[in-house]
UniProtKB/TrEMBL annotation:
InterPro entries: Aldolase_TIM, DUF3463, Hopanoid_synth-assoc_rSAM_HpnH, Radical_SAM_PqqE_MftC-like, rSAM, rSAM_sf. Keywords: Iron, Iron-sulfur, Metal-binding, S-adenosyl-L-methionine. Gene3D superfamilies: Aldolase class I. SUPFAM superfamilies: Radical SAM enzymes. Pfam families: DUF3463, Radical_SAM. Residues 20-228 form the Radical SAM core domain. One of its GO terms (molecular function) is catalytic activity. The keyword Ligase does not apply. This is Hopanoid biosynthesis associated radical SAM protein HpnH. It comes from the Bacteria. Coiled coil: none annotated.
Amino acid sequence: MGISLLQTVKVGSYVVKQHLKGNKRYPLVLMLEPLFRCNLACAGCGKIDYPDPILNQRLSIEECLGAADECGAPVVSIAGGEPLLHREMPQIVEGLIARKKFIYLCTNALLLEKKLDQYKPNPYLTFSVHLDGSEEEHDHAVSQTGVYVKAVAAIKAAKAKGFRVTINTTLFDGAEPEKVAAFFDDVQAMGIDGIMVSPGYAYERAPDKEHFLNRTKTKQLFRDILKRGEGGKKWGFNLSPLFLDFLAGNQTYHCTPWGNPARTVFGWQRPCYLLGEGYAKTYKELMETTDWDSYGTGNYEKCADCMVHSGYEATSVTDTIKHPWKAAIVALKGVKTDGPMAPDISLANQRPAEYVFSRHVEQKMAELAHKPQTFETATDAAE
C-alpha cells in the first residue's frame, strides 16, 4: 500500500467531515515552498527561474507553521527548490509533526544522507525522493550525471534508519512505457513505501517546453504503462485509485485547485501550485477573492493540457467519498487500460492566456530592494 493506514484513516475522516459540514471548497494538501533555490537546474523546471534576490528568500519557521495553521490541510507537501537547503527545515518538520500533519518532504536527495541525522523516523514524516526513471533517464532529466546513484544511495540509507520513503516521478513526452514499468519494478525492489507519478506540466517559464505531454498523449501513455503492471495493482502508488483511472482516460474530472493551495515566498499563490497568476497575503483572502471558475481545463488556455495531481488528486478524493464503490472496484480490479476513453472537457470556451510572471517578479524585486539581505540568508543560499 502506497499510503499508510494511519494516513488513509485520518485523511478520510477529515474529508468526510468536510462533506458533512457542506464545505464545497476545502484544502487537502498544503503545497509549501519555503524557498525556490535549488542545487540542480533541471531542464523542465520552472521553479528556479528567478533573480538571485528572490532565490535567496526563505520562509521562516513561524511563516511555515503559520501557513499550516491558517490552511488546516491534513497533509503538507514541502517542495521548492530543494527544501534541504533550508537550514531550519528540521524545526519546520518538527513543528508540523507536533500538529499531526502528514509531511512529504520532497527532495532530489543530493543532501539527504548528509542531513538524515537531523530528523527522526516518524509515521507522519515521509521523504519523497525525485526520480524520473533509470540512471540514464533521470540524470538526463536533471541535467547532471551521478544524481541517480546518489539518490538511490540516500533512499537505501533512509530506509535502513527506519524512515518512510516514497519516490515522485514526472513523465514527459517520449517516455517509453516498457522502460517506465521496468523502472517501477526496480524502485519497488528497493523497498520504497510508495510511488507518486504525474505528467509534466509546461510552466510559463520552463526552459524546455517541447517535451511536455498533452492530454491525449498522457492518457495513452498511462494506459500503456499500467497495463504492464496489472492495471497498476503490481505497484504501490501513493495516489488514489481514481486519480490513476483519470490519468488513463477513464474519468472526466474538473480541476479543484483549492484542494492543494500553495504558500511560497511570494505569499498564497493564485490559483494553484503550478500557476502564479497573483498572490494573497492570507489563506482566507486566497479562498474568498480568487475567481476559481476562471481557471482549470476548459476555462483557461494555460490549463488546457494539465492533468497534474496537484489539480486533480483532490477531485478524485472527493469522487471517492461520493462513490466509494467505484473507487473500490478500481482498487480491486486495477485501472482499465483498453476500450473507449471518457469524453474530455471542451476547450471551445476557454479564455486566452495572460502572461503575468514578469510583473510579479518585478513587484517582488521592488519590495526586496528595501529589505537588506542577511548574512545567514546569503550563506545558506550557497550551501
